């Protein structure tokens, strides 16, 4: 059985490199996109098992990416975890309202993020 494929959408190169290496070590195949436009292209072409989505992105922001994925019936079930430096309760509510399944604040607590990823992948497996 192949490893779950995650799409990491992050415009900060240091964050992207660190997270992608840690995801690979945790047993995931990590696709990378640096901006919202590339993220949408990748989601449509690769159908990743889960998306880790920075909300403050160039070209198309994460809020818009999430809304477009949810509006596409072929992609709407893709789990999305928002990644953001904004840590106020209303920021989490805004991410969930935009269609994200969960939310993680930066700097990323990697063990907590792994738990969220595993929980969402497991719940998606049960639905299919």
From TrEMBL:
<protein>
    <submittedName>
        <fullName>Response regulator</fullName>
    </submittedName>
</protein>
<dbReference type="Pfam" id="PF00072">
    <property type="entry name" value="Response_reg"/>
</dbReference>
<dbReference type="GO" id="GO:0000160">
    <property type="term" value="P:phosphorelay signal transduction system"/>
</dbReference>
<keyword id="KW-0902">Two-component regulatory system</keyword>
<feature type="domain" description="Response regulatory">
    <location>
        <begin position="5"/>
        <end position="121"/>
    </location>
</feature>
<dbReference type="InterPro" id="IPR011006">
    <property type="entry name" value="CheY-like_superfamily"/>
</dbReference>
<feature type="modified residue" description="4-aspartylphosphate">
    <location>
        <position position="54"/>
    </location>
</feature>
<keyword id="KW-0597">Phosphoprotein</keyword>
<dbReference type="InterPro" id="IPR001789">
    <property type="entry name" value="Sig_transdc_resp-reg_receiver"/>
</dbReference>
